[in-house]
Amino acid sequence: DMARRVVESLNLIENPEFNPFHPANKKSFSLRAMILGEGEPPTEKQIMAKTIESFWAAISINPVRKTQLVKISVSSRDVEFAPVAANAIAVAYIESQLDARIGMTQQAANWLRERLGGLKQKLIKSEIALQQFRESKGLLDIEGVDTLVSNELQQITQRLVEVRSERINAETNFFQLKKLKNTSYDSLSSLPIILKNPFVARIKELESTTELKVSELSKRYGPKHPRMIAAQSDLDAVRETLLTQMKRIAEGIENEYSAAKSKEQSLLQALTKSKEDMLLINQTEFQLADYVRAVEVNRTLYETFFQRINETAETGTLQAANARVVDEAVISARPIKPKKKLIVALALVVSLMFGIALAFLLDALDSTIKTADDVDHKLGVPLLGVLPLLGTENIKSPTKEQAPVYSFVHGNSEGFKESVRTLRTSLTLAGLENPVQVLLFTSTVPGEGKTTTSVNLASAYGQMDKVLLIDADMRRPTVAKQLQIPPGSPGLSNALAYPESLDDSIYSMEELNIDVMPAGAIPPNPLELLSSKNFKEMLETLKGRYQKIIIDSAPMQAVSDALYLSTLTDGLVYVIKADATADKQVKTGLTRLEDSNARILG
C-alpha cells in the first residue's frame, strides 16, 4: 500500500526506469514478448503491479541501531529523483498510519451511534411509562398531596387528644351522677359538678337568704302566722326552682357524655381513613420514584453516549502521527555504485594499517556520552548524579534482591545506594528556590535506565515523604512487570478513562515505602489521554495526597509524550546511558524540551 501511494503520487508509470512496459523500453519488451511468446498487451493492473514491484526493489529501509530511527534509501539512475522518492516514502508511511487511526476512530463513532439509537428508544419508552403512570393515578403534585394528607392526619390526631380528654371528664361526671340512688334534692346537691354551676350557686345563695329570713320570723311568730306562712312559701318555691335546675344539669351531663363519645368515635374513624390515605400515597410515591429513577438512568446513559460521540467527532481529525521525518533525504554527493576507486583505496589502507586505523576510526566515530565531563562539555546541562552498573542486568530471572528496581532497598551495592542518595540531594538543592513536587523522568531511547533510576529514587524519597510513582510510558510500560504487579491490573490509562477508578489504580509497595500507579491497559492513543483534562485534574488531586510525585515518561525520540508532560511538572531529569547514546540524539531531545519551556534540572 505504501509503495502504491508513492507510485501514484509520483506518477512512476511514466518513468521508464520502473515501468518495464514504458514505450522507452519498447525494444526490451518486444524481445521478451517474442522469446516468451507473450502476444497480449499488458493490462493497466499488470502495469501497475510491475511498476510497484520494480520500485519496491529499489527501496532500502534499515533501522538505526540502538535508536527508534529508520533510514530510507532509494537507488535510482536519476540523482535528483532518489531523494524525492525517499521523502515521498516517509510521507506515505505517516499518511497511512494517520488513515488507519482515523479509520479506527470512525469505527468507534459508528458503534457509538448505533448504541445511541437504542438508548434513545429506551429513554422514550421510560418517559412514556412515567407519563402513563401519572395519568393512571391522577398525579399532579404528589408532594403537595403528601403534605396535605400529613397535615390533616396531624390535625385529626391533635383534635382526638382534645376530644378524648373531654370525653374522660364527661364520663367522670356521668358515673358520679350514676352512683346516686335517686335524683332528690339532697342527692343532687351533694355533687360538686352541679354545685359549681353559676345559676345553681345563685339560687343556693337565695335559698340561704330565705332560710335565714324564715329562721328570724320563727322566733317572733308561730307557724300559722301570715308572715311566717309567706316566708315558708318563698323558701319552698326557691328549693323547687333549685331542684328543677339541678335535674336539668344532670340531664345535660348525660347528654354531654353521649356527645363526647360520638365525637371521639367519629374522630377515630377519620383517623383510620387518614392513615389509609397516607399509606396509599406512600405506596404511590415509591412506584413513582421507580419510574422517575428509570427515566433519569436512561437519560444519563443517553447524554453520556451523546457527549462521547461529539468528542469522538471533534478529535477524530486531530490524530497525531506516531512517526515524523527527522532529516529529509538529500542528493548523494557521489554515486553509490560502482565504487572501484574506494574499494582499491580501502583495500590498501586496511592491508597496511588495519589495527591503528580501526582504533582511531572507532574512537572518532564514537560520539556517545562516556564520562561525567562529557555531560558538561557536550550537552551544557548540570550533572545531578552518576549511577554505577549493578551487574544484574543480564540475569534472566533475578530474585527480588537482584532486581535493579529493588537495588536501593534490598541490593548489596552500597556504592549504588550512595549514588541514589547523592542524586536525591542534588535534586533537593536544585529545588531550594522553586520546590519540586512533581518530577518527570525521560531519556532519548528505551533501555537507558530511566525506570530503574526513577523507582530507586522514589524509594529514597519514600524514607522521608509520601511518594507516588506513575508509569506514564503507556507505549512500552515496564514498571508493573518489574514490581511484580499482576498483568491486567488497572493503572494510569484506566484512571484517565474512568476518573472514579483512581484509587483502584494505585498500589501500595510497602517494601519500597512508595505508592505506584502502573501504566494500565495499553491505549491506542497515549498522547491524547495524557493531554486530556482528566490528566490535569488527576494530577491536581494527587498533589494534595503526596509530597512527591515521580513520573516515568516515554523516551524522547519518535513520540512527544515527555514534551507535553514537561509542561505540567515542576522539573525534569534526563537519563543517559553511558557509552550508548549519541550526543547528537541527546542534544536533539534536550533542544525539543527547551523549546517547550521545560525546567530541565539536569
From TrEMBL:
Occurrences of domain Tyrosine-protein kinase G-rich (ranges): 293-361
EC number(s) stated in the UniProt entry for this protein: 2.7.10.2
Keywords linked to the UniProt accession: ATP-binding, Kinase, Membrane, Nucleotide-binding, Transferase, Transmembrane, Transmembrane helix, Tyrosine-protein kinase
GO molecular function, one term: non-membrane spanning protein tyrosine kinase activity
Domain of life: Bacteria
Reactions catalysed according to its record: L-tyrosyl-[protein] + ATP = O-phospho-L-tyrosyl-[protein] + ADP + H(+)
Matches recorded under InterPro entries: AAA_dom, Bact_polysacc_biosynth/exp, GNVR, P-loop_NTPase, Wzc-like_C
NCBIfam families the record matches: eps_fam
Full protein name: non-specific protein-tyrosine kinase
Organism per entry: Oleispira antarctica
